[in-house]
Amino acid sequence: MRKIPVSKLQSGMILGKSLYSANGNILLSAGCELNPSYAKRLQALGFPTVIVIDSYCRDIEFPDIVSDRTRIDGIVTLRRAFEEARKYNKVDTKLIKDLVNRLADEVLQNRQLLFEFPDVRSYDSYLFAHCLNVCILSLRIGMALNYNEVQLRDLGVGAVMHDVGSMYVDPKVVEKPGRLSPEEFSQIQQHSIKGFNLLRDQKDVNLLSAHVAFQHHERIDGTGYPRALKNTDICEFARIVAIADFFDALTSERKHRKAYSNSKAVEMIKEEAGMKTDNLLTELFLKNVAMYSTGSLLELNSGEIGVVISNRRHHQDRPLVRILTDNRKSPVNPENVQEVELAKEPGMQIIRELQDESGLAEKLGAVYAMGRKVVNS
């Protein structure tokens, strides 16, 4: 399976992961054959990408720290909680804590997996899916810090609600491409304050959880907002969530820009470490994130191109790769395909991750489809 832009869908492609509406209902089930009318409808519904099954990566599975069902239920839960917060200035804390407990259980069960960002979200669900991912990533860091159950729950509540104040900001300002005016930026800054004021008034929410909403845009060099706090003046929960928030924002499709690859996002986060973000926490975070997502195409120093089959817990930048082309970029015979464990091959280096590989993917697909016809004849 691999993730591709909806704009590049072609007739005959097979959907690899089911797509859901904002209310949690299935729109298209995994395994269905896609066509141009589906592509137009998905674009209209605000889906920028989908996961498809290609002939050359048919057997590749996207690992996920939490199940599809938990993700969908989580988005529905957060939509309900955020909308109630906007209308009534009240949070259903039991609902939120139940969600956090469910996420923590699955994150703990799947500690051996790296975070790869396999979910597909519509623009309409961006805020809720973002908060869910930030919570998952933050919980992973909390577990690396050996937080106890209470600490993990309080961190999770703060993480999953960190952007609740965005419900009080004009959506046109939140989604505006390009530079914001001083007035618009002031509106954006208010989401931290409004989220904090909401959460601290909830009797069942720990004040540290509320401070996550208040401080997740603070930076350790004092360049953040709303109070330009520095270093340990920013609570640890907020320093954790700041990193998770940055990573998920970078790797998400937005209306005004395309998502960065995991590898590019990791580079950008490394550049911030020790200046904008906490160095130790960033180091723990990066140990839990895959450098190259499963299904992505990589060019090696041999000139060959391979697809990432799976990632390794202690070698985030050295995945298992299936070699698909020779050094002239011509597809190899499917019967002669080899898989290479890069962690065991120090001489083989990744030159780059291919970003616009649609032409190569089509060529590979044609070769593999022909190979299946020969086998079946």
Oligomer: single chain
| Largest beta sheet: strand ordering | 9-8-7-6-10
Mean pLDDT: 89
Instruction: Choose one word for the global shape.
Output: globular
Measured distance between first and last alpha carbons: 25 Å
CATH class of the largest domain: Mainly Alpha
Count of individual beta strands: 10
Number of helical stretches of at least 4 residues:
12
Give me the Rg, rounded: 21 Å
The CATH homologous superfamily of the largest domain: Hypothetical protein af1432
What structural class is derived from the secondary structure elements?
alpha+beta
3D architecture notes:
The chain has 377 residues and is α+β, with helices and mostly antiparallel strands. It folds into three domains: 2-57, Molybdopterin biosynthesis moea protein, domain 2 (Alpha-Beta Complex); 68-286, Hypothetical protein af1432 (Orthogonal Bundle), CATH 1.10.3210; 297-376, no CATH class. Helices cover 43% and strands 12% of the residues. The protein has helices at 36-44, 68-88, 93-109, 126-144, 149-160, 171-174, 182-200, 207-215, 236-250, 262-272, 279-286, 358-376, and strands at 2-5, 14-15, 19-20, 26-28, 49-53, 297-300, 305-312, 315-323, 338-341, 350-353. The two termini are 25 Å apart.
Structural descriptors:
3-stranded antiparallel β-sheet; alpha+beta; Molybdopterin biosynthesis moea protein, domain 2; globular; 5-stranded antiparallel β-sheet; 10 strands; single chain; 377 residues; 3 domains; Hypothetical protein af1432; 12 helices; 43% helix
